[in-house]
Amino acid sequence: MTFDVDRLVFGPDDVDLSRSPLAGHLDAETYVLGAFNPGLTRLPNGNLAMFVRVAEALRKPVFDGHVHAIRWNDGRYLLDAWPLDLVDTSDPRKFLIHGGRWRVMALTSLSWILPVELSPDGLDVVAAHYDKAIAPQAGFQCYGVEDARVSKVDGRWLMTTCSVSPERHCTTLYSSDDGLNYQLEDIVLDHQNKDMLIFEGKVGGQFWAQTRPLGDLYFAYPPGSEWRAGPSINLATSPDALHWKPHREPGIRPHAATVATARMGGGTPPILTEDGWLTLWHGVEPKEIVGVYRTYWSILDRDDPAQVVRTQHPPLLEASPELTRPLEDKMYVRDVVFTTGIADAGDHYVVASGEADLACRITHIPKSAFAG
Length: 372
What we know:
Number of domains: 1
CATH architecture: 5 Propeller
Family: Belongs to the glycosyl hydrolase 130 family.
Organism: Sphingomonas xinjiangensis
InterPro entries: Glyco_hydro_beta-prop_sf, Mannoside_phosphorylase
Number of strands: 27
Structural class: mainly beta
Pfam family, one: Glyco_hydro_130
Strand content: over 45%
Shape: globular
Helix content: under 10%
Radius of gyration: 20 Å
Protein name: Putative GH43/DUF377 family glycosyl hydrolase
């Protein structure tokens, strides 16, 4: 599917690393591996705000026979060195450490969140708010803060992020009274539960969220089932957005009719429409190391979000090589569009995505695209 307005609006060259939270801490040159996967919300002044994941990486991670990783510790950023013969560096985003009975990895970059204010249509940058950057501030974030998702509920902005450390790979909650300045609330989901999206509105007086717990073991559906075993988009409820209970009924599950949902997870926080809760999510088709990421959509029942009212197997968005052609020299993964934000703009939605784990893509999608 093609759309009239579909472009990259922010990328690695737009980040000023002299204003990065890491600036002045490391005796090594860094660069922006990617500026991508932006959360999105509308501010009180009518502008949009993206919350861009900046993956800041070492220019030369391998030296002296070691590969190096950046780590935050008690207000400082440090380098850790791993002997090359102990690691697998085939994926440019991370390296696997050999020798354990389970997978252990470290990242080739450390991520922090940069708020970028945009014009109301999302197409022009108004300001990059480095003074409001969200960076590690606790031990459970020592390897970075990733993939912000922003919802506005009852006049208050709630941001979920993924915090990375050896302690846990958890979901953390931030809150704001103005949409730009955020404070850390706490851990809200524990180890390896990713892509938490808080609904933009309550259901039955409760906060609702989509979640995606990960694991290495899944139990099979019966032969002939329309569903495929594996990661799915689950649901949870909360009285206060801090304490979450898994919902009994499953959410959006991988469908056996398509390999494009061999892996899947939430994308944009569900927003309420006349037909129910609209949610955009990603499905992955296996290919090489990373796979092919595409964006899909579903509408959930307004009173019972475990029920899917309408959905489609064909993708809404696919990766666009034409958009990233000017950034060819910076490409390190392909076939990836990862949609992470949505805002109402009258007859259409402004949709924000990460393109190729590299840059921020804005697409104007008419509301008619989701009609029955």
